[in-house]
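Same chain as my last thread, 419 residues:
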Amino acid sequence: MTGWAVWGVRGAAAALTLAALAHTLWNGVVEPGTALAFAALIACGELARRDTRDGPDDRHPAPLGFAGALAYALLGRSAALPTHHGVLQIVAVTAAAALAGIVPHIARGRGPSVDHLARRVLTVAFAAACFQPLYNSGRLEQWLGQSPYLVLFLLLLLGLTALCDAVLAAGAGARTGRPYLPLLRDELRAQLGIGSAICATGVVMALGAAVAGLWALPVFCVPLLLTQMSFHRITAIRTTYRQTITSLARATEIAGYTRPGHARRVAALSCAVGRELGLSERELTVLEYAALMHDIGQLSLVDPVHAGATAELPAAEARRIAGLGGEVARRTGVPAEVALVVERQADPYREQPVAARIVRAVNAYDDLLGGSRHPGGSLEALEQLRLGTGHDYQPEVVECLARVLARGGRDRVVPVPPG
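reply #2:
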């Protein structure tokens, strides 16, 4: 999705929100008690959101708010009485409650991204537009009534809603230059985790409110709250783990074996190349950890390599150091995949896993570039990598590296934050 398409999504969400608010203010709120209850649920969900911006591990930072909005969009009855709110009121309540809930986060400078809010509005509007006209016209009651087929219809509708959300999320990520299809694949995989819990909770709350009334809302939101707490703990553990690996990677710099910032530069550029090649989020995590630890084997050397540049070493010596690094990585308790990439980084590229091919090429690029940033330095380093594509470096990886550097500007790479 291009930048113009992203701005089109934002504009559509903004126009829809303004139209919904204007319509609701002009005509008044239908069934204000129900609207207020769902607005409070959505606002509380936003208040309990993760206090970060969206990221690969944080696609749904406010799952309770999203589930409450979906439940309101799928609400046909309340305490066995028919409801009459329409699509525009659903969008208005969702947008107003979400904005009210994120005010404290914005005050701390950690509010959600505009793309996240646009996705929320458009996804909820899609679910409401598919359900409410059928319900309000009486066709849904005529076709399905209160039979089990209604539940199947709601699940199918939520599947389409999840697909809509994934398409919008992948489109927002594609503006960074990463291929769209791998992004969509990652978003669809993410929907199987917390996304499925959100959809299930939305359906259960809507069906529960249809029978028991608004008292069902606090009861059925408890499981999702517990799930959200578990995800928060998992994310905290992953963050601590990444910081530990980053600190361990700095050991070679502190000991004077490698140039300052080398591991972080290689990790940042390797992840950019991995995204260009379409690696999944899990593969990118393995790649990042391996790139951070790729020089850890040098700590076992009695005589340090000059400037830590292993790219120009004889093949046998480079493989020996890589083997030492793999052994050290295994002793630190990192996943076996990470240790394997560290161990295989000096092998001929045809014998390497994809992550090892990336680490080898990017490490060689940073070694060849050295500490200089003179004009033409990047082009000369890339040319040397291209000369080695017959045996040492995979041509596709080198070309992806060239595209990443060209897109980001000469020698411009965003570093991985230190631990």
